Amino acid sequence: MKVIVTGGAGFIGSNFLYHLRKKHPAWRLICLDKLTYAGNLANLKGLAQDENFRFVQADICDREAVCRLFQEEQPDVVVNFAAESHVDRSIEDPAVFLHTNVLGTQVLLDTCLHFGKIRYHQISTDEVYGDLPLDRPDLFFTEATPLHTSSPYSASKAAADLLVLAYHRTYGLPVTISRCSNNYGPYHFPEKLIPLMIVNCLQNKPLPVYGKGENVRDWLYVEDHCEAADLIIQKGRIGEVYNIGGHNEMKNIDIVKLICRKLGRPESLITFVADRKGHDLRYAIDPAKIHRELGWLPKTNFADGIEKTIQWYLDNKNWWETVISGEYRKYYEKIYGERW
Ligand code: NAD
Ligand code: DAU
């Protein structure tokens, strides 16, 4: 089996490549990634000597480059992780989100069609469903929940999902979509809540919590997401959407306090700052379908997952120190400068 993984130099994509290599030693793995600020070749160091792995630096919006790679590799499956993924950046500058997340997806779909209806899997997000109220713990996102997006990021992901389903219905392209809740784990870029709080704690820097920290996210260890996506590409029903999540809802403030405790830092580092515009209140996935149809269940509980994640940042100081030098400093100033 030959698999092209786009966005494989980012957080989840790199974890997915390691997962595939461990589970399917004979598969040929090809990573196509533009190496934006979020893409990092250091994330793929463990595959550098692997003869059955190839890395290609290219933009998914670049039709010629994508076509060339498909011509050379004749893949059996394409899994699209490539995206602009950070909500705060989408609020500052939506255009690149539409370009990569929507038009880039279209280029991949066209190319899959052109090369004989190649199997395509779209990595989407629970954010396409919008948010749930904080006072209705009985409500969850199912695959039938209407799309109702809040940010330019989630709107671009929803647009891409609709395009993927349209290519299935109109042209018969064999597609699946997965919509996962918030991931955490190794190689998570420190612009997102958990790695940002860990990295700031390790530098004794203030911990910026948006609003009152009451917003709820449904956290899943990244390896569990990878296993679910692997199952879907092998056994998922064509044309279907699968929600992925492990019923692990937590308030942001509780996560930040937990990280402080684990790293022995005082809660006085916590600083409540201006809220995110249009901030989604609560995400909560109902994963019954993927459990029922594919037998998937998460394997890592939050207590173990956060322990492993914190340890990874302690063991990989060099990784995050490199990541937060350069462009990241400007980003931090832009997003947080006006918030304090
Ligand atoms: P990330 O920002 O860490 O990585 C994105 C990767 O895509 C980077 O390697 C980047 O270089 C690459 N990329 C960006 N634009 C590209 C382009 N035009 N062409 C080729 N490569 C490009 O993101 P992530 O958190 O790993 O998320 C991966 C996917 O999973 C995204 O589609 C995201 O919407 C989805 N997702 C993320 C989460 C989460 O909690 N992080 C949860 C559910 C779904
Ligand atoms: O639910 C899946 C989504 O999860 C993915 O589709 C996105 O790609 C991914 O970035 C993530 O989106 P969120 O907006 O939920 O994640 P983020 O880590 O940015 O924020 C998590 C919560 O923490 C959110 O309520 C905002 C809050 N927050 C975030 C940051 C970066 C803070 O309070 N302070 C911060 O500095």
Describe this structure in words.
The protein is of the alpha/beta class and 340 residues long. It has one domain (2-187, 218-247, 276-301): Rossmann fold (3-Layer(aba) Sandwich), CATH 3.40.50. It is 42% helix and 17% strand. It has twelve helices and twelve strands. The chain has helices at residues 11-23, 63-73, 87-92, 95-114, 152-171, 193-202, 222-235, 252-263, 288-294, 302-315, 317-323, 327-336, and strands at 2-6, 28-33, 53-57, 77-80, 119-125, 175-180, 182-184, 207-210, 216-221, 241-244, 249-251, 270-273. The strands form three sheets. The protein has a seven-stranded parallel beta sheet with strand order 3-2-1-4-5-6-10, with helices on both faces. Strands 7-9-11 form a three-stranded mixed beta sheet. Strands 8-12 form a two-stranded parallel sheet. α1 crosses α7, α2 (63-73) runs parallel beside α4 and α6 runs parallel beside α8 (252-263). The longest helix has 20 residues, at 95-114. 46% of the residues are buried.
Structural key phrases:
340 residues, alpha/beta, Rossmann fold, seven-stranded parallel β-sheet, three-stranded mixed β-sheet, 12 helices, 12 strands, binds nicotinamide-adenine-dinucleotide, binds 2'deoxy-thymidine-5'-diphospho-alpha-D-glucose
